[in-house]
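It is worth pausing here to work through a concrete case rather than discussing structure prediction in the abstract. The textbook approach is simple: state the sequence, then state the predicted structure, then interpret. We follow exactly that order.
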Amino acid sequence: MTEPGSSSAPSIQAPKSSPAGTCDCHIHIYGPSGRYPVAPTSPFPVEERPVAAYRAVMKRLGIERVVVVQPSAYGTDNRCTLDAMAELGDLSRGVAVVDETITDSELRSLTEAGILGIRFFMLRGGVLPWSALEPMAARVAAFGWHVQLQMDGRDLPDRVDSLLRLPGELVIDHTGKFLEPVGTDHPGYRALLRLLENGKTWVKLSAPYETSKEGAPRFMDVGRLARGLVTAAPERMVWASNWPHPSAQDNPPDDAQLLDVLRYWVEDDSLTARILAENPAKLYGF
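Step two, the predicted structure:
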C-alpha cells in the first residue's frame, strides 16, 4: 500500500455508504450567545453551530446516531448540550461537565436526559482539575456514567495508575491526543496500550488533524498509532468527527474525508463497521 508523499498515492474519495447504526461519538453544538453565555475560560471563540447544521453532516455521511459532548466553551453550564440532545431525540447520547457541587438528584436528572459520561478536558480551557477525577468518577459511576478524558497522551505514564483505579469505564479522546507525534515505542503510547488491557478502556479514533504533522489526506503519523490500538482492542474502538472542529475553525477538515481516513487506517470493512456501529451501540447503550 502506498504511503503519503508518494506520487502514486490514490486520493481519498467520498465515503462509501455507512453501515446501519453508524455513530459519530464526539460532536459539539454551539447555540446563540444570548441564550448560552460563553465561559471566560473558553479556549476558542464560539460561532453558532446548531443541530440543523449537524443534521446536514449526518445526511451526507449516513450517520444515524450521535454523542453530543459538552464543549469547553460552556464550562459546567450544560444547557446547550441538553437542548441539542432533546432536539435530536433518541438517536443521541451526551457527555456533560459537572463538578463536586452537583447533587445526586441533578445527576439523576441528567442521566434520565441521556447523559452517560463526565468530561475531563485536561488542556487549556478545561475546568475540572486532576484532583477531581477519582472522587467524581466514583460519584458518577453510581449512575452508570463513564469518564471521558482528553489530555496530552505523552503524560499518560504519570497518570496511568490512577486511571486504572477508576471504578467505571474510561474513554480516551482523539487516539490519545499526543500533542507531538510519537512512535509506538513511546512510553505514553505503551501506557495507553496498558490501559486497554484492563477491558474497561475505550479509544476514539478521531481528530487526527489536531496533532498530525504529516497531515491530510492520511494523517499516518496518527494512523500508525490507531492501527496498533485497533490490533490491541478492536472491540473497544469507536470513531468520531469532532464536528464542528473548534480548534480548526479557519480551515476545518472535510468530514467525509475523516470518515474515509478511518477506512484507510483499518482496511477491513467488517472491522470498520464494528467501529462505526456495533462498538458505540455497546458503549453508549443505543
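Step three, interpretation. Confidence is low (pLDDT under 50) at residues 1-15. The chain is about 35% helix and 15% strand.
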